[in-house]
Amino acid sequence: MSRRNTVLRSLHDVGLAAWFGGSLMGAVGLNGAARDEGGTWATTARIAGSGWAKWSPVNAAAVATHLFGSGGLLAANAPRVAVQQGVAASTLAKTVLTGAALGATAYSRVLGKKMEWAASSDPQDAEKAAKHPVDTDKAQRHLACMQWAVPALTGGLIILNALHGEQQRPSEQLHGVWDRARALAPHMSLPGHLTH
């Protein structure tokens, strides 16, 4: 339980930090600046689309880095997930939240790309927009929600990561293993009682 996983933790944390920070900066800074400077929905969409297009490869790398680190940490901590009370539940919550954040990120990018095509004056983009039509009013409403959903979900992952860190304290591990043993054998008479 005490083996170090510095590289995996670093990949997990740096990837998550970039995912969270990039989405929050995009919602506040990039989208806010596009609204202030755009004037029309088409100009606003072009400005925001250009910024998000530049960020997308970095964001994809951040998400992949986070997922690689997460998978490695899960494999390294599988015994603790199995035997320490509360770790499986927080791991499941983290997995569900990660899936939701991935879905929100992908949906935002698809909507943003369609809006970018619809707002573009480039003939190739106009052709793509014709192949993938979008209701711009509806897409704008959805994007307005998604721009806050991604940082909220990834922020939730940061909070669950802090919980996981607390659960790794030696006293928490001992207490969690003891609680799991008592839960699995409620009718056994176990000597003594451990405290925090």
UniProtKB/TrEMBL annotation:
This is ABC-type Mn/Zn transport systems, ATPase component.
